[in-house]
Amino acid sequence: MNFAARKRIYTAIERERETKVITFVTSDRVGVETQIAPDCVDLFVDLLDRLGPTKRISLLLHTNGGHTSVAWRLVNLIRTFCDELEVLIPLKALSAGTLLSLGAHKIVMTKQAALGPIDPSVNHPLGPQVPYGNQIARVPVSVEAVKGYLDAARKDLGVIDQGALAQVIIDLSNKVHPLVLGEIFRSRAQIRFLAEKLLAGQVNDTEQAQKIIDFLCADSGSHDYTMNRREAESLGLKIEKPTQEFYETLRKIHLSYAEELKIIEPYSPQVLLGANQATNYSLVRGLVESTKGGCYAFLSEGTLAKVMVPGPTGAMVESVTDQRTFEGWRKIV
Asked: What is the pTM of this model?
């Protein structure tokens, strides 16, 4: 199934639910993952301008997350074009995807759909460095991991002496740059502020909203935690269970974009090359689409080639080069 086939399904959903559908998919294919990022905002502006003001918008979402500030910007952008926003989750909307979902008036979740914690990780030019192959890479720092470290020192280990606590912080700053730590604590306050504002359209009780924020920001224990629709509803979120017919429709759409993005096939340059000495490739790594606006795809294109390079012992070994010629969003329909 391609966009033309999905478009027919979107049209049926729009007719049955009296809504307008926008689909946003970021790939979680191993090796070529993508995320919610600033470069998608203009695409939504284009699709929404073509759509115009409407009563209801249904955002069909599949993502592992990304930039929280972009999720905040997107949900506010979409809500300026509609009176009611619902998020449809066939499989998952994690991290920044969950934050975006909090800004909807309701969330439609299949039985396998998952939300997750919204505690951010900070990527910073001064972040910690770790070896990555022959290079050194900077790794993101989890906001709640830093808080957990300090809480463990105070509560679990009973460190209460001010001098000892100062030494704990000094030791931490020797591992994580002080400017990164400052960004971490700023981000922690910001994510709670954003979540509180977004939840206002879905949860009226302030105390209940704070419980939801506490759980999604810290009490869930790990950023890998996932939450199904039953737990999301018990937490206080406004969840809709799709009918069997609508479930099958959402499942059909999911299988379509999963096939197009080859989500269940880990990316391997060697497999792509096969017996060939070189091959051109075009990988679909994201989709933003609607019935009126057409389909944008995030593409990576280039040429893979086998080459011989000196190995660790000096002997020549086979390697693969990737000559990337294009990477970004392109309108394909």
From this structure: 0.87
